Amino acid sequence: MPRAPSIIVKAASFFLGVICAGTALHLLAGSSADVEHMGDYYDLERMRVHEILNVRRHVVIGPCYVGGNKQQNGWQETPTDILSGDNSTLLSSMINYELSNRGVTSDRFYTLARASAGFVDKFVFIKTALDAGNLASIIYMAAPEGNGEAFYTPLSIHQVFYGILALENLAQRYPGASSEISTYLKRVEKSAYYADAVAKYGQDWRSRFSLERMGWNEKLTTLHERLFPQTPDSAISTKARIWDAFWFTTNTIVRPMTDSAAVIGRDLLIRLTLWNTLRDRKSANITKTVLDQTVESYALPAAVKGHLFEPTDKKHYYTTTEDTDAWLKVMQSIAQQAGFALITYSQPSYHYSAQFVAQRWPGYMEAFRRGTSAVPSLVIDRSLQRYPNDFFFRKCRNCPEPSFYADDHDSKVAIGVYRESVAVINEMSKHGFLPPQASGLPKWERLMTLSPDLDECIRDLTFPGQCLAAAPAPSWSSP
Amino acid sequence: MNRTLLKWFLAGALTYTAVTLIMNKGILQLYKSQTWSVVYGQF
Fold it and tell me: What separation in angstroms does the CA of A477 have from each of A35, A219, A375, A423?
């Protein structure tokens, strides 16, 4: 009778099996390995490392339309697929694309934006950008009708807490800015919107709100930070994913429950009509008719109401000059300490009437010129560059009042944003915020003069019935 | 003896295969769901 094998021999057999199976699987997998994908992987990895270590970062911050419908993806990076929609039509992506056309690899642009035009919660973005390191400049996309010190829907009132927490973090990190920050914090804590937020969430809000708990992927974030502590990589990706999870949830679950069917239907209709225009240029006239009907039947009264600053169902706190000045004061102080430039950029805006701009805009932009003068700064005012198809008809999905912006799924919009990206690059390189080789002729010159379909009548939404005068062709050589 | 050792051999091979496939499936899912970038940073 054969002797039973010892446990050592059994274990040896077990591990021999493991080794054989491993070898077989390895050979099988190796024989079918996708060489192209491996190449992609190494390229991506190389670019990623370059990006983490070497690039100077320029971060575009602003309200929802800055990030478009994909605002939930905090950091946008799509260098190649430009006209495919979504993130690729963000200003930052377009700028990155054009910079790579011009052979500039030293600078990269990012977007941090969410559905609030409030000043306070922008400090979360500032903190995130500083966490990532190599921050060269903050580009604030400004729009006077959407700016408030806190400007929120009932869904986002708690964002003021995150703003406060981010400010406290920045005060610890930059003691030189702490006196300005504490002044600003006192101002915030005296404000009406802070009182409302405390009334809703309680005096003990600090026990429930923290920057680390902004998202639903807390466990994954914690794991990641334990595995890769204190790397710039973690600073980018974890914070971005926190925003991602947060806004994905908001947009996909909460919004359909809160918006009426009419609003959703209107969005869909606008999107479909623009999509049809893209697919079949012959249908432009039909599209235009449908679009006009859509505008008249759904959006126009709401938009006019919004621009008269008389919202009925949502709570707003509109900015004053003092708000802007106070915000710029603390921003400037942080920028001085952290060493980044402050750039203000205003995008083309169809829906501002001439009267509106004349009354409100000059002083508004002047406040930014004055308020950022102590640091390297630049004001790029493109608000009156009203050539068609730029930010036209982007729907600011989470903004409290309906307003008209182009939808970022549309390549007509991509053309407009591309034009803007060229203008911003040229202006920034002219003033030394980008390397000299960044300035130059656009790669896709034809896009700069492409004639749009719907340029017959750009409606002035604050004064229904008028058409805006046809704007001159954009001049990219002198933006 | 041979049959016993064959059982242990197969157990080792199957265990390794199962673990590898399950792990690969998980990694593939992570990769496809873009959650991968949480681990490896976002490119």
Answer: 43, 50, 27, 8
